[in-house]
Design brief:
Helices cover 24% and strands 24% of the residues. By secondary structure, it is an alpha/beta fold. Bound molecules: 2-oxoglutaric acid.
Length: 308
């Protein structure tokens, strides 16, 4: 594992998930609606304070389906660690997300969008992150592509048009270190484990489960990753739209390190908020000390599967 600097301590903060509805074939309309909902989430009517971090769902600017990715893909051209001028970005989604993050002066995880690499022209399912100044500060390309085939229920093959990312990604805010994944990435505990061991306090996955795997696995996987790693976990879904080609499960949620659900949306368009309390993480880790009981001396014996 590459060496990573330890994170600053987790502080209390408010997380808002936008379970976005009305995602259709008109990209400009999708972007307009996403912007309106981000402004609404930031207004936080009826709440005592505005959120510190707002999250959009997977594929928020285009219909979800591998045949659509090439038509909706945008050139982002972001290279971690290199200066990035949002003003000259080719990506209209990046432009919108950056300007609205700046307008509301709030951290924003921009769900995901189909991206075309400017050099290789390969397509990715990509999440971008903005600080309250509107700077693009992190990007995650979905590592594990959603290729499933459950006969009679659902067949989906992202790898027909997309390429998987080759890197795990996280970013630091003034309140937490946050690890990124996209949807199917949550099925791979190794990825969550590495992010948690690199100091992430919260793992956020823009996602879009379906009506076959959603009921059984959506909550289970999030609770598992939260309990395994004693971190906060959250997935943000689009709203369910039965007139769309892909029927998303909805139920955007936030879980604490004990696996308790802090907030959960229904299946329609909704903004759900959760208060992240660092004490819960501290108490969980003190009470159930798995984070300091790991036996790497034993695990090393089972890495070679040919011995089994
Ligand atoms: O893993 C699943 O069941 C759903 C995953 C998914 O919808 C996705 O990766 O977009």
């Amino acid at each position: 594992m590459p060496s990573v600097s330890p994170p600053a301590p987790l502080k209390a903060f408010t997380l808002a998930l936008i379970q976005l509805g009305n995602i259709g074939s008109n990209k400009a309309a999708n972007l307009r609606h996403a912007r309106e909902m981000i402004l609404k989430a930031a207004r936080a009517e009826g709440r005592s304070k505005k959120p510190d971090l707002i999250v959009l769902p997977e594929c928020f600017n285009s219909p979800y389906g591998h045949t659509h990715f090439p038509n909706y893909a945008e050139d982002i051209g972001y290279y971690p660690g290199k200066p990035y001028d949002v003003g000259t970005s080719e990506s209209e989604s990046v432009q919108m997300l950056s300007s609205v993050a700046k307008e509301i002066s709030t951290w924003l995880i921009g769900g995901s969008i189909p991206e075309r690499d400017v050099d290789t022209h390969k397509l990715y399912n990509t999440c971008t992150v903005y600080n309250p100044n509107g700077d693009l500060v992190a990007m995650h390309r979905k590592v594990h592509l959603f290729d499933i085939d459950i006969p009679g229920k659902i067949t989906f093959k992202e790898s027909e048009t997309l390429t998987g990312g080759i890197k795990l990604n996280s970013f630091d805010t003034e309140f937490a270190r946050i690890g990124l994944g996209i949807c199917y990435d949550i099925r791979f505990p190794e990825m969550a484990m590495i992010s948690a061991r690199q100091g992430c306090h919260v793992l956020v996955y823009p996602g879009a489960f379906n009506l076959t795997t959603g009921p059984l696995h959506w909550e289970l996987l999030q609770r598992s990753r939260a309990v395994d790693n004693q971190v906060f976990v959250s997935m943000c879904s689009p709203a369910r739209d039965l007139s769309a080609e892909y029927h998303a499960w909805g139920h955007s949620m936030v879980l604490d390190p004990m696996g308790a659900i802090l907030s959960e949306a229904g299946d329609g368009e909704e903004i759900t908020y959760a208060e992240i309390d660092p004490q819960v993480m501290e108490d969980t880790r003190a009470g159930i000390p798995v984070t300091v009981q790991r036996r790497f001396d034993v695990y090393s014996q089972v890495t070679d599967l040919s011995n089994l």
